[in-house]
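Input:
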Amino acid sequence: MTSPLASVALFHLGPVPITTGVVATWVIMAVLVIGSILISRHLSLVPSKTQAFFELIVDTVDGQIRDTMRLEPAPYRAFVGTLFIFIFVANWSSLIPGVEPPTAHIETDAALALLVFIAVVWFGIRASGIRGYLSTFASPNPIMIPLNFIESLTRTFSLLVRLFGNVMSGVFVIGIVLSLAGLLVPIPLMALDLLTGAVQAYIFAILAMVFIAGAIGETKPIPNSTSQRMPP
Amino acid sequence: MNWLAFASIISAAIAVSFGAIGPALGEGRAVAAAMDAIARQPESANVISRTLFVGLAMIETMAIYCLVIALLLLFANPLLK
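Output:
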């Protein structure tokens, strides 16, 4: 049985080994980027069916950001929405036969968690300056500085292990059951794996929002009159 | 098979088995509390079940951590190299 922790090199690009996860990641990125460009090229005020569908997705992301962070969603929509859609598509890419989701490899998840870590620092500094961001580490009192510092590292690590463990264990369990039982038996497990993939993408995005909102510190609540709130 | 491999396999089994107990108890409590809340307020069942799913996934992650540790012991054990 091959180790679920190792990744197989597909071919070598000079000295750099290219694994299947990297190829899948780039294909997903290309599909998302080209699809977004094609969709947003001819935006009209009276939306077509496709435009209405994607406006619905953007509106849902906006509503979730507004509910979770209690902020205007515009500065965070691009990062959080891209994070959610990429992880969602990556987790569900196991629907295509022969494709292993790139999030089942630890390096993709490490990159995503690192992105969240950098985004927390960047949004924190942008909201309140370097002094203001550093002062959030001493937020209840200065005794908590080492604990807050360690927490900002360990929560990134737990974000990484959570996504990796969930997706990888789904792939691993399906592989074991497939080698034991054959044709139709793994289908309920695959359905469970799809549910887990969707929920994990949602949780990853929600936790990224919570961490960013924590780094921004005390926030001005948005006035209720200007924001249209999503129904729960 | 040397003693280190033996110990790794035993500890992987212990990690998964004990790591499954806590999340199982926690998920049971969470589902029971959600059932209670839905029985009291059926109109807010949507919000409760959405929050419940997210919470269950968070709790389940604890068991997944133990699974990752077990797989590390079995497949990427530095002592067995």
